[in-house]
Fold this sequence. Notes:
three-stranded antiparallel β-sheet, two-stranded antiparallel ribbon, 28% strand, HU Protein, Chain A, alpha+beta, elongated, single chain, 3 helices
Amino acid sequence: xxxxxxxxxxxxxxxxxxxxxxxxxxxxxxxxxxxxxxxxxxxxxxxxxxxxxxxxxxxxxxxxxxxxxxxxxxxxxxxxxxxxxxxxxxxxxxxx
Length: 96
């Protein structure tokens, strides 16, 4: 599902216009970004937790040349699904 499909689905299931839903999602995204840039977590009960983690510098291997390369330390966004979301997804897999 892409953003447009999400906007359409939310608009169909609520009384909000597509324009209002799009504005809400854009605002939600900005709030998540600001929170993560500060190094804080975003916890969404029943869905999961978004956080930021640091990866240490390490040595990697270029898969095409097999040459060793130095990978610098970096900061990455991380998502950990809540137990409820895991259970829902696992249940969907059983019926397939």
